[in-house]
Amino acid sequence: MSSELVQRILKRDVRAVATAITLIENRDPKAQTVLKAIYGQTGRAHVIGVTGAAGTGKSTLIDRLTAEYRRRKRSVGILAVDPSSVFSTGAVLGDRVRLREHFLDGEVFIRSFASRGETGGLSAAVRDAIHLLDAMGKDIVIVETIGVGQDELEIAKLAYTVLVVLMPYIGDEVQAMTAGYGEIADILVVNKADLAGAAETLRQLKAVFGESDPLVMAASALKNEGINALVEAIEQRRAQSLRNGSYEKKRLDLCRQELLALLRARIFADLAQKIGADSLDENARLIADRRVDPYSATEQMAKKAGLT
Ligand SMILES: Nc1nc2c(ncn2[C@@H]2O[C@H](COP(=O)(O)OP(=O)(O)O)[C@@H](O)[C@H]2O)c(=O)[nH]1
Ligand SMILES: [Mg+2]
User: Fold this and answer.
1) Less Cβ around it within 10 Å: N or C end of the chain?
2) pLDDT (0 to 100) of residue 256
3) Comparing C-alpha atoms, which of 208, 245, 112, 67 is closest to residue 216?
């Protein structure tokens, strides 16, 4: 069953990819079999992370970016870690909305992920889904996350290029609002540039970050303005990073992080099983009653589980 699924994924069968993503989400052991088999065919896709606060226009912007990439004959996959995200794909299809549905899916693959509330689980699932879309031949994989939790930031780090989307705001809170963003963003996009205050926001951001690190750009997803320039900037950055070796460095770094994450998950699952939920509850009770301290409890539990 798995090998047939693998063949279908490599033949770009949308339903096979959807089935495999469901296996990943359900943590079905078959998922690993599939992922092992397809991994050799991955490593080609350009993964673009799009993050930022809710309502800044990420989904709308992704719709427009997708249309632009499709115009450039590049295939696109979209993974949204916010189930409320709505993609019209109207931008992609224009007048051709009456196209048969499977054909629509063949052009642009879209899948949403629900947050799990368990740190690490979500980013692992999204990383696996990226591998699938990569193996099915998507040139571009866009991952939308809301830039709030640890998981969402982890996911942004799975991308080669990270866009942080902001919208015009009033006041002098630039530094506070953009504190963590500068570190993860390759490009800061002031979306909704059609609204008042956009030029001033852009000016303030450039005052904080300079011209290029991160690059600060304006766009209006609603009016489809600045989209071509944004795609140009994304592509230029990628070409540049391929030339100067930073792309290769990032690739290596992502593989190292993936290994560490998988090892961490495996070690922890093993340990949790050996320790058992009962022992965890018992020790929590003892600690709460101050009959033992958490440090000694950890030492004891680790020893019991066979760790030194
Ligand atoms: N004025 C204006 N509104 C926009 C623009 N882009 C998105 N919006 C609107 O902002 C709202 C939130 O957009 P959405 O893409 O769902 O934001 P997300 O939560 O960041 O994914 C929607 O009502 C959009 O129509 C823009 O460039 N200008
Ligand atoms: Mg959205």
Assistant:
1) C
2) 94
3) 208
> Ligand 1 centroid to 67 CA: how many Å?
16
pLDDT of residue 99: 38
Query: What pLDDT score does 102 carry?
Result: 38
**pLDDT value for 36:** 97
pTM, rounded to two decimals: 0.88
DSSP state letters, the chain:
-HHHHHHHHHTT-HHHHHHHHHHHHTT-HHHHHHHHHHGGG-S--EEEEEE-STTSSHHHHHHHHHHHHHHTT--EEEEES-TT-----HHHHGGGGGS-HHHHHHHEEEEE----SSTTHHHHHHHHHHHHHHHTT-SEEEEE--S-SHHHHHHHTT-SEEEEEE----SS-HHHHTTTHHHH-SEEEE--TTSTTHHHHHHHHHHHHTTBTTEEEE-BTTTTBSHHHHHHHHHHHHHHHHHHSHHHHHHHHHHHHHHHHHHHHHHHHHHHHHH-HHHHHHHHHHHHTTSS-HHHHHHHHHHHTT--
Do residues 88 and 63 lie in contact, with contact meaning Cβ atoms separated by under 8 Å?
A: yes
Cα distance from N-terminal residue to C-terminal residue, the chain: 42
Tokens of 292: 């033992």
Give the pair of three-digit tokens for residue 285.
């009770």
Low-confidence residues of the chain, pLDDT below 50? 90-103, 105
- CA distance linking residue 198 with residue 56, whole number of Å: 13
Ligand nearest to the CA of 63: 1
- Contact partners, residue 204, CB within 8 Å, separation at least 6: 172, 174
Q: Is the CB of 191 inside a 6 Å radius of any atom of ligand 1? A: yes
What is the DSSP pairing of strand 108-112 with strand 46-51?
unpaired
Among protein residues, the one whose CA lies closest to atom 2 of ligand 1: 192
Cα-based angle 156, 29, 10 (whole degrees, multiple of 5): 65
Residue 64 in contact with ligand 1 by CB distance below 6 A: no
